[in-house]
Design a protein that fits this description.
7-stranded mixed beta sheet, alpha+beta, single chain, globular, 784 residues
Amino acid sequence: MIAAEPPVAPAVPLHRALGVTDEELDAIRARLGRNPNDLELAMFSVMWSEHCSYKSSRPLLRTLPTRGEGVVAGPGENAGVVSIGDGLAVAFKIESHNHPSAVEPYQGAATGVGGILRDIFTMGARPIAVLDALRFGDPSDARTRHLVDGVIRGVGGYGNCVGVPTVGGELVFDPSYADNPLVNVMAIGLLDERHLTRAAAPGPGNLAVLFGSATGRDGIGGASVLASATFADDDPSKRPSVQVGDPFAEKLLIEASLELIQAGLVEGLQDLGAAGITCATSETADRAGTGIRVDLDAVPRREPGMAPFEVMISESQERMLAIVRPDRLDAVAAVCAKWNLPCAVIGVVTGDGDITVIEGGLDADGQPRPGAREIARVPAAALTSDAIVHDRLAAPPERRRLAPAPGAPLAASDQLPERGMDPGAVLQALLGSANLASRRAVFEQYDSTVQAATAAGPTSGGAAIIRVIGTRKALVAATDGNAGMSAADPWLGAAMSVAEATRNVSITGARPLGVTNCLNYGDPTKPDAFWQLSEAVRGLGDACRALGLPVTGGNVSLFNESARGRIAPTPQIGVVGLLEDVSKALRPAFRASGDAILLVGEAGPGLEGSEYARIAGVAPEDGPPALDLALERQLQAFVREAAERGLLESAQDVSSGGFATALAECSMWAGLGAHVRLHVSSSPAVDLFGESPSRLVVSATPRHVPAVELLARQHGLPVEAIGSVGGDRLVVELAGAGATGAAEERGSRVADSLDIPLADLQRAWQHGLPRALGWTELEQEGAR
């Protein structure tokens, strides 16, 4: 008897293999009026990916406020640009490189830095600062430690070599990021407004000039594919998709691009990132209402035998596309040669609105040579502005989880010292935890002072301050993303992230100019995940409108989930502000013994989503704190006016870890103790460690206290002088109805004062992160 042969599995249709759904294939056919060929289908697959097309989030993003004072470029451009006066403007944007970093952490992070820097100098701005917002799983896990090591080395290795300081950011650990780390990078640049450059391809007959690194197989479908689907890190098929960066080539690219712009030699400029040549040609053409005829043979390649689709969608790094008038080609080539960068004319701007790919070459007039053949023709708009948009279903989860994130305790426990029994021990445990401990061991691996403009960097505490050389002005930058609150309430988490990022800028005395965002969420085809995203966008918009700020651009990163679950919804916010006089900048650290300490604002109930709850769990009666956006606006206006009038010596906001943590930071960073008396309104746990927003710990000389109190009341804010700076201990005496009795079970039984040597707090804070990650002193020294 002859055994029957096993059935042959049917071949997967090409469009599905490329991530294109049946519905999307029908839409492609409708736009072309025919079936796409294989090359065209590959071009659509990357351009209609979630990363490039925003096909799920575009309707939501249209609801955000984008207009504001000084905005000269907003969403749709490579970066937002806001005027800062005197003919100068600041360009800034935040983007993600999450999935590539999960596959290959060093190159994923490094090319994330390189990509966001290109977005900045493409606008005509010189990059002056980078901030990295990083999120990983359990720090004791071997995989997490591998990712942390690779990502930090990647950020530092690229930024240090390219000569742009890394001045701030965040490092957060949560079990939900175990399989999907978040690597969000923000870059800031400075430009003369006269040199603002758009990513457009005007003028039929103009030339498309590719300059920079040669095109290879690295990054085939990299960011566009990896960021548009869930995946497992151990899938070997994903590894070749990660781009490979060269920071030294990027440095040459910066100088050459800025020289071309300042000399007026380019009509438009676009970097090659996700989807490579396909994206750069279609986006620039669509913005100008033109087309581009691409000479495939003219593209410089680093590998032989590359197929047309590989050339068109390769995401090889450090490449730029310039639109150049023919009479300026020689001058452009001379600038590229000066910086030792290859350049080639790879196409010509046309008036037909199509991206046409020619194999066999173009003649001197930009027409196909005899024997050449057209291998693809797609309307530029079909790839970009007319890309498919999905109407996703949003529905809240049937049962909201109590914990801030997967893996956190579901019920209150005694993993921290007994609640309220020893507030000093609780504070010491929080300051030594992975999320609140000093980041010095990380930031010392970054060059934060290159360019000699950093007035306050990552080791000084608070927002970063970068001088505008040649003026008295400075730019202030901060990032924030409150995933804990977002897990409890995605609207609240996004709104609080905006409030805290802008508050961190305002407490320096700077006026926030605008908001950039990176929205990190799960699979948008799942209704509860899309609900989280839609609620976050609503919260982002509501907060920006309440605070009077425009959203100047950003990024959406979806499909951040694996077989083990979805990440905590993470609305990463970046804010840039302007200080008119850098000498008036406020910092969080106390200044002098004898100064008075004041608390502006008052604590509200709610421990859910806090660092306290992350470690100790959430009790059934806990909920998240409330946010009053009108009060937040008044608070920020107050602190800016107080700084301008010179009434304050220091200012710190109450956020992660609550009031006690904020007070400890002010003391630790100054090396000065403090003695305060805190009126407890509900319970010591809530008043000491709750993270209700719109509160400040400020210090002032005794003679300025009445003026500070009057100004706060004029802004409608509660204010109280609670103690003074001095000594070598941190002492918080608890007073009020909530400190004793049975007003609340959690921590209300005991009214012990918080009394602990400052040296003990500093020791816990300084050693917490290396201990959590298992870094020995020798390893730290080697990393430096």
